[in-house]
Amino acid sequence: MTDNELKELVASLAIAQQRNEIQSAQDMAEIRELQKKNEIQFAQTDVKIAEAFAQQKETEAQLAKTDAQLAKTDAQLAKTDVKLDKLSAKIERIATLVGNISNNQGDAAEEFFYRSLLNAPYLGKIHFDTIYRNLPANKNKLQDEFDIVLVNKNSIAIVEVKQKAHPKLINDMLARKLPNFRTLFPYYKNLKLYGVIASMVSNKKLIEKTKKAGLFFLTQQGNHIVLVNNKAKTF
Questions:
Q1: Residue 104 has pLDDT above 70, yes or no
Q2: Residue extents of the structural domains in the chain
Q3: Sequential DSSP letters for 172-188
Q4: Of 55, 72, 77, 135, which sees the most CB atoms within 10 A?
Q5: How far apart are the C-alpha atoms of 91 and 108, rounded to whole Å?
Q6: What does the pLDDT look like over 203-230, one tens digit per residue?
Q7: Predicted model pTM
Q8: Distance CA 83, CA 70 (A)
Q9: Domain 120-229 annotated CATH 3.40.1350.10
Q10: Which residues contact 166 (CB under 8 A, 6 or more apart)?
Q11: Which string of DSSP letters, residue by residue, matches 113-148?
């Protein structure tokens, strides 16, 4: 190798080394820049993680408060349930008492009209020979019971008794009670059939509607019964 060739080799090696040093410096700069970016990203991630932990703690605290509130609500609901149970029991006792009073009044009204008609079995000028009380009947699928039934050789009277009759009872008498009696007791098909409303308490509207329907109306006057309208049609 000549001197020139040796010089050229040394020069090329120097240039290559210089290039390597420049490239290494550039690579190190890029590495440092990337490292800075990573450090910034890590710092931001740490902040987010810290915020997430803080939010989690707030959420846990809120959940704890919610659990406490739910526990209070459950306790309050339990107390309310107890109060409602007591109230329901009280209402049930009152309903039973009112029902018993109503039944007793109904029984007393029925007893009053039955005893009165037993002693004086008349509807106006019509005299009856036989009186039945709480007469039941069952034919096929049809069932019914009649409070008081008055019978003679020509006529039958069906008496529906109430402590305080409602005008709807008149419609029930016409649409159900009288037709049911005809169906359940065909033996009496040739007899005249009368409908009677008997009410301890009366009013003008009830009396007028009873008259218009062609029914007898009985009510109380002192210790006696009074036939308010003495004319009725047959059914």
A1: no
A2: 1-107, 120-229
A3: HIIIIIHHHHHHH-GGG
A4: 135
A5: 25
A6: 999 999 999 999 999 999 888 889 988 8
A7: 0.58
A8: 19
A9: yes
A10: 206
A11: HHHHHHHS-EETTEE-SEEEEEEEEEETTEEEEEEE
